[in-house]
């Protein structure tokens, strides 16, 4: 049966130093995750060593280096989507949440108050991200093959929220942990079964 997997990129250098945005490469633990990803997928499909190179899986990444590196060891067709890039933090790009709270306390408070609608100065809101993902979601629904989307926390919250029919307000806090595969299995009635598969 068709599967849709969502995963964040492996831990990046910026994740390690708690910085948002940027375009940093994977940290060592993220590279370990990237190397385990194929086996995690294969374990979800009953395939032998030979079949695993012919299974129809499309790999969709963002245009950022950390998702491309995470998908690097997957022997499948790859597609890069600008629309899958992480939420743009504008003037806050590259900062830690502590630095944002210190340097831009009003921005920090405004985001805490309404994370869904808050738009970073010269950047995006969750609502903006949800809107720009529309063409990706349309293609995901059209696609017949299994898809693995290697994306980012905010973007995957929006994708997960859409497929699981979550209320808009809940999207900015949905749980999308690092080093975890999110598996969606379409049910005949059009809804989805959903499971977290952690790196063991
Ligand atoms: O900036 C990147 C983060 O992955 C988004 O997380 O929306 O919870 O701040 P946040």
Automatic annotation (TrEMBL):
Protein name, per record: 6-phosphofructo-2-kinase domain-containing protein
Organism: Volvox africanus
């Amino acid at each position: 049966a068709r599967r849709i997997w969502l995963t964040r990129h492996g831990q990046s250098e910026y994740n390690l130093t708690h910085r948002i945005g940027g375009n940093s490469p994977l940290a060592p633990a993220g590279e370990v995750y990237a190397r385990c990803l194929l086996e995690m997928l294969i374990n979800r499909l009953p395939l032998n060593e030979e079949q695993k190179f012919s299974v129809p899986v499309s790999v969709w990444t963002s245009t950022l280096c950390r998702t491309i590196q995470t998908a690097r060891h997957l022997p499948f067709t790859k597609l890069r989507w600008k629309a899958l890039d992480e939420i743009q933090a504008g003037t806050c790009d590259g900062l830690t949440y502590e630095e944002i709270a210190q340097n831009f306390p009003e921005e920090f408070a405004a985001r805490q108050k309404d994370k869904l609608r808050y738009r970073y100065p010269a950047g995006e809101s969750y609502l903006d991200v949800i809107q720009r993902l529309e063409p990706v979601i349309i293609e995901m629904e059209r696609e017949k093959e299994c898809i693995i989307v290697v994306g980012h926390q905010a973007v995957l919250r929006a994708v997960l929220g859409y497929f699981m029919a979550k209320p808009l307000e809940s999207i900015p806090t949905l749980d999308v942990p690092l080093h975890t595969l999110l598996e969606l299995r379409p049910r005949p009635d059009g809804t989805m079964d959903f499971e977290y598969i952690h790196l063991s």
